[in-house]
Model the fold of this input.
Amino acid sequence: MRKTHEHAEGTVHRLIHESKVLQDNPLKDPWRRDLHVYTPANWTRGEKLPLLLDMPGWGGSGMGHTNWRPIGENVPERLDRLIGSGAMGRAVVAFPDCFTRVGGNQYINSAGTGRYEDYLIHEIVPLVERDFACGGQGRRACFGKSSGGYGAIWHGMHHADFWAAISCNSGDMGWDALQLPDFLMSLGVLAKHGMSVQKFWEHFEASPKPTAEERHARMLLAMGAFYDPDPASFLFIRLPGDPHTAELIPERWNNWLKYDPARLADECAPQLKKLKGLWMDCGDRDQYRIHFGMRRLSRELKRLGVEHVYEEFADDHTDVDYRMDKFLPWLVERLS
Done:
């Protein structure tokens, strides 16, 4: 059941992709995965539409964004409305599945989780462009919120020769404001399990209803598998500081800082200047304090002369999919 039948309905194509890149991934996650691809109503291969790729936030996957929703719209329904009303140009949109055992993805190559940068760039996008005659050089963009926003800005900073435009929405950055408070909170959660990541994780996976603190602790711990993986540790998870005193370990924390977009403006400005479009936005009372990091990055990009849009809106981190009504048309326009 759709919320409205006012606009013509596009098609969600459901494919199965067998990845070579993800075979033998460190977490032993599946390498045979679903891939959903949206095409607008009355689509034909001859249109050669631009391609957008959706990077969902932590705990999500492409299938979650195409799934039916009882309140509001899923992303294909939103696309039908935006395209059908003329607010957005026609585009193909890919919804890959990058979920991992640790609970989500940051869309980077990591020795602890797998080569998800390569998975998207070398497998998913070429497959969609071939099968749906879309995208191509200068005609592809990625977007995401939260961890997906992190993935989008990371890809823009490192792969501007591949992506032509990106949208980073409430994207993880500013590690001192975002990660450190959660690190301190996580130590309290771990203390209930003898400071053992493995015992906590086994408790979490067996729990019929993890607490909010436990969910946030799992997310913080998972970041260690992405930013500073330890092959000798359970699920490659290593803490950035002393679990008893909460003092940061310089070598460990420095490895995390290498992945903080708020600190990478100088290094990555030449890449970002190649983009046709760079959109960033965030709620002005984000409960994860991400707006502080995004303000810093925007300030540094202005200093470096990197053209971009940065908008703060009156909201927090939760249920802000309505922002797609602004940035999806903007991305397609930049690819035209």
About this structure: The longest strand covers residues 11-18. The domain at 11-173+261-335 is CATH 3.40.50.1820 (Rossmann fold). The chain has a mean pLDDT of 97. The longest helix spans residues 116-132.
